[in-house]
């Protein structure tokens, strides 16, 4: 957005660039047609090594002298690795239900249940790729932060330390209580059973997956019950619990803040075309250590993911190179590239800081309806 835009003007970023792509979707797909096959060996190796290293570093974190260098390093490294292995939830929800079934189950046991994020609660993510819902109040993963006042971005950011608390309440209190009360169960299935960043999202959990949800709810509750029993017996201390909470908060916070650079977040609630959806998404193209840490398992190529949601993460680098070499200069895909996380967030921040409450797109989200 131009820095000279008046404070009360609607943010120019609200509408993705009007580009006419002379290459058809079929042309783009032809460039990457041989890259859609997943390699189970890569998935299993990455997931098992990352999770093993994360849990090993967690042991070091708990055992090391308090506030020492070893503990701090173990804390950060464990969180980064848990973030990496946790990101496979994004790959899992894009797999056919019959594909790599045991990978999904083992992932749940190693990460999903202990971190209170079983993959089934992210099933709603597929709606984020529905062009009739993307960028509208019906999209659970989109907030118009760039076309709303800066306070909305701040409100989003301050939620990060509270994310584990929300999950503790969801699986430790609301889940088991809702088994006993039908009215509460409907509310939980509608308002507390989807991994979303849009607080206004409200859609009932699919009936076909309710049995799966109840199973993982029971596993999460049993896990929390064991922790509660250990606290009661003083086998672990409240300090240990606080350490675990901090590790989980930092892990989830990495993804929460990473999400600021997933999209431009400038839509006003209207439906978007496929080209606009891609242009609103962001590829982080810089080859820095921070990109590797903040965008694991293919997350750096988010525009590419919206162009081809079924593309496996280990093929994305090659697919991006082919598209950049083969697509025309006016392709919306090229508009999506940013050199760094900071460049993407700075653009969002500038746009939000120049948007007044009078022109806030967030009002459409709070009403639950997009603008026509």
Gyration radius (Cα, Å) is 21 Å
Terminal CA distance reads 23 Å
Strand order of the largest sheet: 1-2
Task: Give average pLDDT, whole number.
Answer: 92
Quick one: how many beta strands?
2
| Helix content class | 40-55%
Q: So what's the overall shape?
A: globular
Could you name the ranges where pLDDT drops below 50 across 5 or more consecutive residues?
A: 1-22
Run of helices and strands: HHHHHHHHHHHEHHHHEHH
- Structural class per helix/strand content? mainly alpha
Number of helices: 17
Biggest beta sheet summary:
2 strands, parallel
Percent of residues in beta strands: under 5%
Description:
This protein has 372 residues and is mostly helical. The protein has a domain of 126 residues. Helix content is 53%, strand content 1%. It is built from 17 helices and 2 strands. The chain has a two-stranded parallel ribbon. The longest helix is centred in the N-terminal third of the chain and has 24 residues. The protein is globular, with a radius of gyration of 21 Å. The two termini are 23 Å apart. The N terminus is likely disordered.
């Amino acid at each position: 957005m131009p820095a000279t835009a008046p404070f009360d003007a609607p943010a120019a970023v609200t509408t993705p660039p009007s580009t006419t792509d002379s290459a058809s979707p079929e042309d783009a797909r032809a460039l990457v047609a041989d890259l859609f096959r997943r390699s189970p060996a890569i998935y299993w190796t990455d997931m098992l090594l990352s999770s093993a290293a994360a849990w090993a570093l967690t042991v070091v974190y708990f055992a090391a002298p308090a506030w020492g260098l070893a503990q701090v390093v173990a804390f950060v490294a464990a969180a980064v690795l848990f973030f990496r292995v946790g990101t496979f939830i994004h790959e899992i929800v894009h797999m056919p239900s019959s594909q790599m079934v045991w990978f999904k189950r083992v992932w749940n046991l190693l990460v999903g249940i202990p971190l209170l994020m079983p993959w089934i609660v992210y099933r709603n993510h597929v709606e984020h790729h529905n062009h009739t819902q993307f960028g509208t109040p019906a999209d659970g993963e989109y907030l118009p932060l760039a076309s709303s006042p800066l306070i909305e971005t701040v409100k989003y950011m301050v939620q990060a330390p509270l994310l584990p608390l929300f999950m503790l309440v969801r699986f430790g209190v609301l889940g088991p209580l809702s088994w006993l009360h039908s009215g509460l169960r409907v509310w939980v299935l509608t308002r507390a059973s989807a991994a979303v960043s849009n607080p206004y999202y409200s859609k009932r959990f699919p009936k076909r997956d309710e049995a799966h949800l109840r199973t993982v709810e029971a596993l999460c509750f049993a896990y929390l019950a064991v922790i509660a029993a250990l606290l009661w017996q003083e086998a672990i201390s409240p300090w240990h619990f606080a350490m675990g909470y901090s590790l989980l908060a930092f892990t989830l916070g990495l993804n929460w803040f990473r999400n600021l650079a997933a999209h431009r977040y400038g839509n006003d609630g209207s439906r978007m075309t496929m080209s606009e959806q891609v242009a609103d998404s962001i590829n982080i193209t810089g080859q820095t250590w921070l990109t590797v840490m903040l965008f694991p398992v293919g997350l750096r190529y988010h525009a590419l993911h919206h162009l081809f949601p079924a593309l496996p993460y280990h093929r994305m680098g090659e697919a991006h190179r082919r598209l950049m070499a083969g697509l025309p200069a006016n392709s919306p895909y090229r508009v999506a590239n940013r050199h760094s996380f900071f460049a993407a967030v700075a653009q969002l921040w500038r746009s939000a800081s120049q948007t007044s409450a009078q022109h806030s797109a967030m009002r459409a989200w709070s009403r639950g309806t997009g603008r026509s």
